[in-house]
Amino acid sequence: MQIVYETMYILRPDLTDEQVEQATAKYENLLREHGADNFEIQNRGKRRLAYEINRQRDGIYIQMNYTGPGNMIAIMERSMRLSEEVIRYLTIKQEVKEAQQAQATIPAA
After folding, report:
1. Lowest mean pLDDT: which of 6-10, 17-21, 92-96?
2. What role does it play (predicted)?
3. Structural domain includes residue 96
4. What is the pTM of this model?
5. Is 58 helix (H, G, I), strand (E, B) or coil?
6. What pLDDT is stored for residue 94 in this prediction?
7. Domain range holding 17?
8. Residue 107 domain-assigned?
9. How many Cβ atoms sit within 10 Å of the Cβ of residue 74?
10. Is the dihedral of CA 39, 86, 9, 19 positive or negative?
11. Which residues on neighbouring strands pair with residue 2, listed in sequence order?
12. Which pLDDT belongs to residue 70?
C-alpha cells in the first residue's frame, strides 16, 4: 500500500516570487532528505483569506502532493511552525491501494 500526502500551506503575502520559490524548495528538499518522492507542487497564487491571521488578510497558497514515510511529516511541520514566512499549514494523508491504482489505469471497454 502506498501512502500519498497532500500539504497545503499559506505564505505571507509580502514575499517576493524569489522568496516563495526558496520556501517551496526548502520544504521539498527537507522532505526529500527524509525519503519523500513523487512530488507535485502547485503555486495557487495570492488569495484573500477567509479570516485575518496574524494581521494578514491575504496569503500565497502552495499545494504539495508527495509519497513517503509518515515520520517526515512531523519534521516538516515543525520547520513550518518555526518559520516566519508560513502563516498556516495542513497535511492530509490519503491511502491508495495498489489494486485501485491498477483499476484506475485500465480503460473501460
Report:
1. 92-96
2. Binds together with bS18 to 16S ribosomal RNA.
3. yes
4. 0.81
5. strand
6. 83
7. 2-102
8. no
9. 11
10. negative
11. 96
12. 85
Pairing of strands 86-96, 2-11: antiparallel
Could you tell me if residue 109 is inside a domain?
no
Instruction: Work out how many domains the chain is built from and give that number.
Output: 1
Find out whether 65 and 5 touch, Cβ atoms under 8 Å.
Answer: yes
Q: What is the CATH number of the domain that holds 30?
A: 3.30.70.60
Give the model confidence (pLDDT) of 63-77 as tens digits: 999 998 888 999 999
Cell numbers standing for residue 52: 485575518
> What is the model's pLDDT at position 106?
56
Establish if 108 belongs to a structural domain.
no
Scored b (16 or more CB within 10 A) or e, 76-96 reads bbeebeebebbbebebeeeee
How many C-beta atoms surround the C-beta of residue 73 within 10 A?
17
Residues 76 and 1: their CA atoms lie apart, in Å, by 23
Closest alpha carbon to 51 in 62, 41, 40, 59? 59
